[in-house]
Amino acid sequence: MEASMERAVQKRQVLYLCVFLGMSWASAEPLRYFVVEETERGSFLTNLASDLGLGAGELSARGSRIVSDQSIQFLLLNLLTGDLLLNEKLDREELCGPTEPCVLPFQLLLEKPFQIFRAELWVRDINDHSPVFLDTEIPLKILESTTPGAAFLLESAQDSDVGNNSLSNYTISPNAYFHINVRDSGEGNIYPELVLDQVLDREEIPELSLTLTALDGGSPPRSGTALVRILVVDINDNAPEFVQSLYKVQMPEDSPIGSRVVAVSARDLDTGSNGEIFYAFFYATERIIKTFQINSTSGNLHLKAELNYEAIQTYTLTIQAKDGGGLSGKCTVVVEVTDINDNPPELLMSSFTSPIAENSPETVVAVFRIRDKDSGNNGKMVCSIQDDLPFVLKPSVENFYTLMTEKPLDRERNTEYNITITVTDLGTPKLKTEHSITMLVSDVNDNAPAFTQTSYTLFVQENNSPALHIGSVSATDRDSGTNAQVTYSLLPPQDPHLPLVSLVSINTDNGHLFALRSLDYEALQAFEFRVGATDRGSPALSSEALVRVVVVDDNDNSPFVLYPLQNGSAPCTELVPRAAEAGYLVTKVVAVDGDSGQNAWLSFQLLKATEPGLFSVWAHNGEVRTARRLSERDAAKHRLVVLVKDNGEPPLSATVTLHVLLVDGFSQPYLPLPEAAPDQAQADLLTIYLVIALASVSSLFLFSVLLRNRAALGGRCSVPEGHFLGHLVDVSGTGSLSQSYQYEVCLTGGSGTTSEFKFLKPMIPNLLPQSTRKEVEENPSFRNNVGF
Ligand SMILES: *[C@@H]1O[C@H](CO)[C@@H](O)[C@H](O)[C@H]1NC(C)=O
Ligand SMILES: *[C@@H]1O[C@H](CO)[C@@H](O)[C@H](O)[C@H]1NC(C)=O
Ligand SMILES: *[C@@H]1O[C@H](CO)[C@@H](O)[C@H](O)[C@H]1NC(C)=O
Ligand SMILES: *[C@H]1O[C@H](CO)[C@@H](O)[C@H](O)[C@H]1NC(C)=O
């Protein structure tokens, strides 16, 4: 500093020194002249002649000149005046560089006489250069861990000026971390040193740019700058840190494998491998390792296996994040498994009884327990059976249920029940389990055998062979097994006084009925008896039915002629007036047949005649009429044979012989009568009752004929009061007589030309044999059935 002040004073006094140097002319010391660099050419330095004490004109006369070692002629001497002028603009830095002082020696040479004077031109510095940094950017790497106080030498600036104008100070742009320390090398060189004031944090300020300024000591000072780029170098001074220390996640238990559970994330402020994070489980249990998987780079936690709420509800995992430098951080992940209704209810049958006897009071059929592994509503259950079954479910403790019969069961209505127990949970969606059981109902003998009909009517042909199967009865029993096995029997008559007619037998196993002997329709048209059916239950139950056997007629009776009587003792002779017109009714053959139905349908036919063609017989009613008008030529006596045939298969027949006498004019009527008849004859009314009873045990044929000869009385039938109603009943068409009917017949001989039998209304029979009447009275239905 002292040196630079000295230089400044020298500079200001350059001209005064010239005077002073001129005074030292006589000494051996060279003359000294001072000039400031960059002074304009031609500037006056001194008057050398006067400085040396030479007279005017002596310099030129003695042949004077300036001599120097410098390549350039930097001085100019005016020989006439002796003035020394600056011939060049001098650059101190060019002439002397860093050398200080910058002295340019020169000599004044006088030739006549020879004389030399030594002199010096001192070139003084001005501040015409600024400090310059060779590199305008100075990179600097500093570890963030560096302790305060550490110093970093920086590049020096250069300044061509010397002395006070050379570099004198360095400064740095204001900042919190560094200051500059100017060091002196001891040789006048100074250099800057960057000193750390406080710890650097790369994570806070990763780099720093500061401006370094170099100042020289000139007045005014000049400066130059360079940029110091400080890169803060990272050290692993940060451990990874999780964003959250606790992650809580809920995972439905049915989450598929591979589902992402959570993404954990940690941060590390360091860079490079110091900031590179790897995630891993920290002391995980085997179960956690089996269930979860963590992506070491992304921190994504995935499911590796299925969750099961019923097994584990919560997992607690510790996840570690580690950086490349070995520092680590931890977080906790709590995975709560949420229940899904993934378990259907279960039914565990404890006991089941089948069959259950019918007619039993409330009975326990089954005991069972239900359960559901889910929780909450997913595990709540309701239990039910079908509505239409006679069973009830009774809940008990611990999800136990009893299934009971609600009322006595009836095997005959339902032999079995299919019971479906449905257990449904209350989850969403609802899951259900169905359990089906088949409960059998066992039989109790509570049903008697029942005949298929309350009464049976069987038909047979009469004259059957003994032991003929005539029919069957059948009874069923709604029970089962031996309770339903039926045995048939014949029951004794209800009236104990009646003898048991052993006409039939029964097969006890199948109810087949057999005739024990040949039946005769004419003797017994129908009969009835009771059959019983008994089961093998204990106690046995039984029932009965009525069997009615109707004997079917066989054509086993020939027609029987009632009129004219054929007993032969007094042949009947019909009188026919010769004046009779064609179609005159001669007589009517009346016949009956012991059989019934078709077997008793009769037809008539003329078999023989004395004079063929004179008489004809009506096939259906047996009327015998003249076929033509009679003449005198016709013989008086005629004999006719009439065939009466029934309609049975094969037909049976009978013949009857008629005697006809032709009489002249309108003679008194003549009524031929059997020998016994005249005793009973009346004057105007002759009634003949013919009662023929073809009675057997059960049948009766009755016939009565009223013959009334009304011809003599004017040809009209008179009907007895209150007894005959007098109108004609037409039985035409069949020519047969219905059995058991009583007919009133009258013979009319009206107006002398016609005379005929007339059948009047049927009469209620009043002539019944004792035995028959009794039977009829005792069995009213029997009467109806056979058509009485
Ligand atoms: C250098 O500069 C600093 C800051 O401007 C100043 O405090 C210091 O005194 C200076 N040093 C010299 C030798 O001029
Ligand atoms: C981990 O996650 C990264 C980024 O998501 C992915 O590229 C990589 O494949 C995953 N690694 C495995 C093993 O899944
Ligand atoms: C019970 O189920 C069985 C088998 O499905 C069936 O054969 C039977 O008819 C059912 N019984 C009733 C009473 O529904
Ligand atoms: C240089 O500066 C110092 C202090 O300011 C002064 O004492 C000295 O004289 C100066 N030197 C010159 C040659 O000007």
From TrEMBL:
SUPFAM superfamilies from the UniProt entry: Cadherin-like
Highest taxon of source: Eukaryota
Membrane topology of this protein: Single-pass type I membrane protein
Transmembrane segments: 686-707
GO cellular component, one term: plasma membrane
InterPro entries: Cadherin-like_dom, Cadherin-like_sf, Cadherin_C, Cadherin_CS, Cadherin_N, Protocadherin/Cadherin-CA
Pfam families per the UniProt record, alphabetical: Cadherin (PF00028), Cadherin_2 (PF08266), Cadherin_C_2 (PF16492)
Keywords per UniProt: Calcium, Cell adhesion, Glycoprotein, Membrane, Repeat, Signal, Transmembrane, Transmembrane helix
GO molecular function: calcium ion binding
Organism of origin: Prolemur simus (Greater bamboo lemur)
Compartments reported by the entry: Membrane
The keyword 4Fe-4S is annotated on this UniProt entry: no
Keyword Ribonucleoprotein: no
Chief localization: membrane
CDD domains: Cadherin_repeat (cd11304)
GO annotation, biological process: homophilic cell adhesion via plasma membrane adhesion molecules; nervous system development
Name of protein: Protocadherin beta 7
Domain named Cadherin: residues: 134-242, 243-347, 348-451, 452-561, 576-671
